[in-house]
Amino acid sequence: MRILVRETDYAVVNLDKLTYAGNLESLAEVDGSPKYHFERCDIIDAERVEQVFSTYSPVALLHLAAESHVDRSIDTPGDFIQTNLVGTFTLLQEARRYWSRLGERARRDFRFIHVSTDEVFGSLGATGAFTETTPYAPNSPYSASKAGSDHLVRAWHHTFGVPTIITNCSNNYGPFQFPEKLIPLMIQHGLAGRRLPVYGRGENVRDWLYVDDHARALLCVLERGTVGETYNVGGRSEQRNIDLVRDLCVLLDELAPDQGIGARESLIEFVADRPGHDMRYAIDSSKIERELEWRPHESWESGLRKTVEWYLANQSWCERVQSGAYRGERLGRGVAI
Ligand SMILES: NC(=O)c1ccc[n+]([C@@H]2O[C@H](COP(=O)([O-])OP(=O)(O)OC[C@H]3O[C@@H](n4cnc5c(N)ncnc54)[C@H](O)[C@@H]3O)[C@@H](O)[C@H]2O)c1
């Protein structure tokens, strides 16, 4: 959103339900721009989605709205089915209705970009990487709901001709990530001197991508991607969870030393593993690199340092989003995604 408003000519409508994970304060930088509009809307509400289409006549839709936290999907899977499956179905139906009434040129140029995850491919052994042709094998309620949404998008293209493109991205990290996800959670715990809970023995491997690199990949796909295709997006940056947490400890000790806490590594504590925890994800992103000339700009070292520095400088944001203080504030002021 920030990159779209700051670096492109697009006007943007941010359509968001503002669940616990959504906060308008995170978009304060673009609030007030004449190119930015906000509509509070649940994507399962067909009438509201239709209204947004008819009010703004968008040239494209980037679908990122989701329930996205795997642990929550184990506790409350129903929310994931509603938003990720029913919500995607609703957006597809409304997009199809809107698109089918456009003139010839606008119909040709319209895009429905569906943002998905590498988790739909299941778990890898010690070697190999997911490609765009890897069979789907989702293991958690979250990844199953995202896999189902990918299938709906594919079907709406093949059956109805809606000009869709799917992206499957690896784990994101960076500024503004809700502090329940692994990296911001560990930063917050490390700063407070609380234990750093690591699942199992910390051997699960994820491929990490700095969030701005993901945003720029989506922009490439929007502008140069081929309709009907899928693109894998990854950072070529595989890390075992335990190594990631140790890297964070070293950075926190350097950037926020605290004699009372001592070396943060001593806070690491192994806890009972998450049920069905996938062992390893790795993305082969050679297709998007080759065809759309996208490359990640941040290395693991530079991205992680920027992230820790951002959280250190924005502790008040963390406190406010966790308290829910900014959720839903300033409703109806016309801002958006
Ligand atoms: N974070 C990652 O590591 C990652 C990796 C690959 C793909 N993705 C995908 O990228 C997208 C964004 O991920 P994120 O990490 O920013 O998620 P997030 O959970 O942090 O934020 C999701 C956003 O969607 C909104 N939302 C939830 N339900 C909604 C509904 N019913 N109607 C309208 N808005 C709703 C929330 O208010 C919030 O603003 C998701 O589709 C996710 O599957 C994320």
Strand content: 15-25%
Return the average pLDDT rounded to an integer.
Answer: 94
Tell me the number of strands. 11
What is the H-and-E element order?
HEEHEHHHEHEEHEEHEEHEHHH
Q: SS-based structural class?
A: alpha/beta
Shape category: globular
Largest β sheet strand count, sense and barrel closure: 4 strands, parallel
Which value, in Å, is the CA radius of gyration? Answer: 20 Å
Helix content: 40-55%
Task: Give start-end ranges of low-pLDDT stretches.
Answer: 328-337
Please state how the strands of the largest beta sheet are arranged side by side.
Answer: 3-4-5-9
Hetero groups: nicotinamide-adenine-dinucleotide
The helix count comes to 12
End-to-end CA span: 6 Å
Characterize the structure shown.
The chain is α/β, with parallel strands linked by helices and 337 residues long. Helix content is 42%, strand content 15%. It has helices at 2-7, 46-56, 70-75, 77-100, 104-109, 141-160, 182-192, 211-224, 241-255, 286-292, 300-313, 315-323, and strands spanning 12-16, 36-40, 60-63, 111-117, 164-169, 171-173, 196-199, 205-210, 230-233, 238-240, 268-271. The strands form 4 sheets. Strands 3-4-5-9 form a 4-stranded parallel sheet, sandwiched between helices. Strands 6-8-10 form a 3-stranded mixed sheet. Helix 7 crosses helix 9. The termini are close together. Mean pLDDT is 94; it is low at 328-337. The structure holds nicotinamide-adenine-dinucleotide. The site of nicotinamide-adenine-dinucleotide has 23 residues, from helix 4, strand 4 and strand 6.
